[in-house]
Design a protein that fits this description.
- Belongs to the intradiol ring-cleavage dioxygenase family.
- InterPro entries: Catechol_dOase_N (IPR007535), Intradiol_dOase_C (IPR000627), Intradiol_dOase_core (IPR015889), Intradiol_RC_Dioxygenase (IPR050770).
- This is Intradiol ring-cleavage dioxygenase.
- It is a single chain.
- Strands 1, 2, 5, 11, 12 and 13 form a six-stranded mixed sheet that branches. Strands 4-3-8-9-10 form a five-stranded mixed sheet, with no helix packed on it. A two-stranded antiparallel ribbon has the order 6-7.
- Helix content is 30%, strand content 19%.
- It is globular and about 65 Å long.
- Helix 1 runs antiparallel to helix 5 and helix 2 runs parallel beside helix 5.
- By secondary structure, it is of the alpha/beta class.
- It starts with 18 loop residues before the first helix and ends with a helix.
């Protein structure tokens, strides 16, 4: 995949931790567009789309259903990439829908955008098992616990995880894809523990060979995503969580092309240099004696907690809208 305007990193942008920042950033990133008319048209489109999402209280399910229903065949490239979803991502609509539908509940893990590379065919792996085959990147061990907001473990939670290899490609982007790779599905243990072996994520460009890539280029934006590891976590009685962990230090943290990074999702990787530890974690000698360690608990909000948080946010949004109208 080709990189577009990769050096325009917008280091002054705040992380999109709120829906208001998402909407603001989605317009600010177009500030270097060399075509004033295109900038005006895009900024206006973003503003109206974001207003539509807020006015209708659009749910995640409704938005995904709409994207799939109305996505024209001409905007579907390859057997597993939806350009229409990508367009929603780069205009900040996906991030906004996510922010409004999944407000943070206490210490719960925050959500972020799904992206266009999730598949249903991830292989089942045991706790501590490998999601990536040999040669896909620098080894990384990921572990933690799945907990509720009171700190109690959640056994049997399903964890779907997927990432790119060290070239920045998902398995679905290879024409000769056979078995799924760099993705897996596992269950949390009775004490909530989860663990798996993957590879250290790398930054990568979102596809630039289609209509969305051409639009980004004309807007003077880059098409880079910071390094990240995707996770989707579900458990009975709890709000489904779609999130990602972003290793700190990536130059694109503040200017993610799809506005997905939140401060709480930025993680520090530890470097472990020990043959004994590497073997204990399941890495064979061929992987070497050094690996990265990502330690992070995943905290799920209950369905009831999430519903209450959404209703509270909707009331806040309605009050702000009424205030704006009264000032006209």
């Amino acid at each position: 995949m080709s990189k577009i305007n990769e050096h325009k990193t917008f280091d002054d942008l705040p992380l999109p931790d709120t829906d208001a920042i998402v909407s603001s950033n989605a317009r600010i990133v177009n500030r270097d567009c060399p075509d004033p008319r295109l900038k005006f048209l895009t900024d206006t489109l973003v503003r109206h789309l974001h207003d539509y999402v807020r006015e209708t209280n659009l749910t995640t399910a409704e938005w995904i259903s709409s994207l799939r229903r109305f996505s024209p065949r001409s905007l579907t490239l390859g057997h597993s990439r939806q350009e229409f979803i990508l367009l929603s991502d780069v205009l900040g609509v996906s991030a906004l829908v996510d922010a409004l539908n999944h407000p943070k509940v206490g210490d719960s893990t925050e959500s972020t955008v799904l992206g266009p590379f999730f598949t249903e065919d991830a292989p089942e792996v045991n706790i501590g098992g490998a999601i990536a085959s040999e040669g896909k990147g620098s080894p990384m061990y990921v572990h933690g616990r799945v907990l509720d907001t009171s700190g109690k473990p959640i056994p049997g939670a399903t964890i779907e995880t997927w990432e790119t290899d060290d070239t920045g490609h998902y398995d679905t982007q290879y024409e000769n894809r056979g078995e799924p790779d760099c993705r897996g599905r596992l269950k949390s243990a009775d004490d909530g523990t989860y663990a798996f072996r993957g590879v250290v994520p790398v930054a990568y460009p979102i596809p630039g060979d289609g209509p969305v890539g051409k639009l980004i280029a004309k807007l003077g934006r880059h098409n880079m995503r910071p390094a990240h590891l995707h996770l989707m976590v579900t458990a009975e009685g709890f709000e489904p969580l779609i999130t990602s962990f972003y290793p700190s230090g990536d130059q694109y943290i503040t200017s993610d092309a799809v506005f997905g990074v939140k401060k709480s999702l930025v993680v520090d990787l530890k470097t472990v240099k020990s043959a004994e530890e590497a073997r204990a974690k399941g890495f064979p000698p061929s992987f070497g004696d050094e690996f990265a360690l990502l330690e992070r608990d995943i905290v799920l909000a209950s369905v009831e907690e999430s519903k209450a948080a959404r209703e509270k946010l909707q009331k806040t949004e309605a009050a702000e809208k009424a205030r704006q109208v009264s000032n006209i």
